[in-house]
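Async update (no meeting this week)

Hi team, since we skipped the sync, here's where things stand on the single-chain job. The sequence we agreed to prioritize is pasted below, unchanged from the tracker. I ran it this morning and attached the output directly underneath so nobody has to dig for it. Comments welcome in thread, and please keep replies under the output.
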Amino acid sequence: MTKEELGKLGEELACEMLSKKGYFIKKRNYRFDRAEVDIIAEKDKMIVFVEVKARESDYLSDAALLVPMKKQKQIIKAADAYLKENDLDNEGRFDIVIAIINSKYKKLDHLEDAFYPTL
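Output:
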């Protein structure tokens, strides 16, 4: 499986899991400037911006290492653009879904409030 195929599968599985948890998937692969948000979902009037990290191994699955500060800033920038573009004043939150996918198993970890916009 290529890295791109792994990523797409990870996003599919993340969307399925989020839907089962009661999230409404509003948008996938939202792009603004050079930034991209993998999944934008809504639950209980909260807009949730989700970064999906798909891996074949759970080695180095620490969220802080998977989504470095530069990437977080890009996601936050895109999230802000999405809220403005859609004239939304809902609260936002940044989650990470870590998808471990290999021949032995598929495992998803959903980390809510994984990072915060910094001032």
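Quick observations from my side:
Helices lie at 3-20, 63-66, 69-85.
DSSP finds three helices and five strands in the chain.
Reply here if anything looks off.
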